[in-house]
Amino acid sequence: MPVIMHADMDAFYASVELVRHPDLVGRPMWVGGSGRGVVLSASYEARACGVRSGMSSTRARRLCPAAVVIPPDFDAYAAASRGIFAILRTVTAQVEEASIDEAFLDITGSLRRLGGDPVAIGQRLRAQVADEQRVSCSVGIAPNKFLAKLASKQAKPDGLVQVRPEDVITFLHPLPVEAMWGVGESTAAALHRLGLMSVSDLAHTPRSTLHRAFGATQGNLLHDLAWGRDTRRVSAAPAERSIGSQETFARDTDDPALIAVELLRMSARTAERMRWAGVLGRTVGVSVRFADFTTISRSFTMPALTDVTDEIHAAAMTAYAKFNLQRARVRRIGVRVEGLVDIDRAYQQLPLDAPDRGMREVERAADMAVQRFGPRAVRRASLTGGGHSVAKSVDEIDGWADV
Ligand SMILES: [Mg+2]
Fold it and tell me: For residue range 320-345, what is the model confidence (pLDDT) as tens digits?
């Protein structure tokens, strides 16, 4: 039976900030925008007031007026993340980076070398992360990824939960269906409509009923998971990397010209970050959040890898056009380049005589000028004078759920 570990940092961005602001330890605080932005990561003191990541800052402020708000510093979080993953790799090479602050480890093959007791290995790992990065992490240990993820969630904050093979059903079946990893709001609502509240209810429902409600594939998956069966392997391949930027408008807008300028601004910022990171990408995703907080996204894949603003902007405009929005009011918009590859590895894929070569050199020169003289030194004509419409902007690495 495999032994899978899920390590998940507790309130990651907030924890990294508390290392730098020790005076805030024990006080409610969150990382995020102070105006119309959202909460990215809240300390447990803020969570006690009901503040959650993804919540609008306005709402969070109402719930917790005394909280301190810290603007995000993604470079610091990425650096802490690299340090943490390096520690995880001392346990096993079988580490799958699931996001900036969580990973799956397949420790089956390392058990003997590390003394044979998964709980002792997990506790040592937690101590090492706390000691070296001063961030607390919760660990779940189970026979598969699904159960390990549920176990780490139960372990939060700063704990460890092991689900042994013989305990799987007693652990899993009393949980509500919405606790299952992969069951989102709409699936949970559909299960509730069928009268299925607990995982046990789901497990004891005939597959044919689930097929009718969810189709064969999802129906089978739900049934298997309800019995604790999950065959997904820990994939040690590097996590899919992406770099992006998003903006929340000061006022919801349906002005296509304003949206086009913001797409350009975010494309420029994303391209600059990509050149910093030394990566290229082909797929550009655009996400739009509406006034009612529903969020949709579309993407467009370019013919070749790039880190050039104009190409990313053109792809973003193409992706945006796929929404075919009429007069919907947009609250937040984001641009993200996905499937990033290191520039050294990608260079042979770059057509060296392509017309974008000149543009890349221009943009690199602009980056250098920004470094020397500050961001005002170089601005695109179409971007100067704008910016008052934007209440908050966030540059992000690798998504921002659950940090
Ligand atoms: Mg986390």
Answer: 998 887 778 899 999 999 888 877 66
How far, in Å, is the centroid of ligand 1 from the Cα of 85? 13
CATH number of 242-397: 3.30.1490.100
The active-site residue, picked from 17, 45, 97, 102, is 102
Whole-number Å distance, alpha carbon 140 to ligand 1 midpoint, is 12
Residues in the chain: 403
Q: How far is the CA of 48 from the centre of ligand 1 (A)?
A: 17
Q: Which residues have a Cβ under 8 Å from the Cβ of 287 and sit 6 or more positions away?
A: 246, 295, 296, 297, 332, 333, 334, 336
Which residues are near ligand 1, the ion (C-beta closer than 5 Å)? Answer: 8-9, 101
The question of whether 338 is a catalytic residue gets the answer no
Average of per-residue pLDDT across 170-180: 96
Distances (CA, A) of 361 to 194, 282, 365: 59, 19, 6
Domain with CATH 3.30.70.270 in the chain: 1-169
Q: How confident is the model at residue 37 (pLDDT cuts 50, 70, 90)?
A: confident
Q: Read off the pLDDT of each residue in 346-369 and give the average, rounded to a whole number.
A: 56
